[in-house]
Sequence to fold (237 residues):
Amino acid sequence: MSISVTGANKHYGDFAALDNVSIDIPEGSLTSLLGPSGSGKSTLLRSIAGLDSLDSGSIEINGKDVTHASPQQRDIGFVFQHYAAFKHLSVRDNVAFGLKIRKKPKAEVEAKVDELLEIVGLVGFQRRFPAQLSGGQRQRMALARALAVDPKVLLLDEPFGALDAKVREDLRKWLRRLHDEVHVTTVLVTHDQQEALDVSDRIAVLNKGRIEQIGTPDDLYDRPANVFVASFLGSTV
Ligand code: ADP
Ligand code: MG
Fold:
């Protein structure tokens, strides 16, 4: 599913969290929203998800206008930084949750959960409870849970933010592999330049509620559009 945001504005009082933002996210891509704290990344992601409403502008998913659609109508999987796992459910039941509430046949649920646990490397941990997992394992469980219902779009808001550098790096590689396998259109919010450069097909650099530049990691690094992008990525204009 492609995502298209056109002329998005969002104000908090006089403050513009999104200032005339337009972005096209191609089907099957892994696109990062990169920018410093307060640049509007989460606001843009939440707007795509339907968790925040725009003051003006529009959002289309696969050519269908969803500007006023509820989150449930958008077929989207989320992983936010402080992801709320069900503490009283096992890893397996956490991953199965979305399928069970959709009343999928038992055999289908079991097969899908087996497949996902395998992909995220948690087969040996499926009977544990979330509190018995490491931070990285919990994030992988969160990703499996989000993917269980075959979302058309996966939105990740700083999903690895709280983890240490080594675990982040492993998860980045793992996210890239996962994306290459399932091809779900993915939008990753991050303030980490290296993370964006490492995992993305495309990067949108945000600053003060505006998009400064959109392109491939190479485009941005080799041909930054302005001094902000250059200094933020640590390259030279
Ligand atoms: P980022 O995710 O890039 O750090 P956000 O999208 O969360 O940035 O926020 C962009 C700006 O909008 C910030 O300055 C933030 O303080 C402001 N903002 C976000 N949500 C609210 C809110 N509910 N009320 C007031 N200001 C907000
Ligand atoms: Mg944020």
The helical segments are 41-49, 91-101, 106-119, 135-147, 165-182, 193-199, 217-222, 227-233.
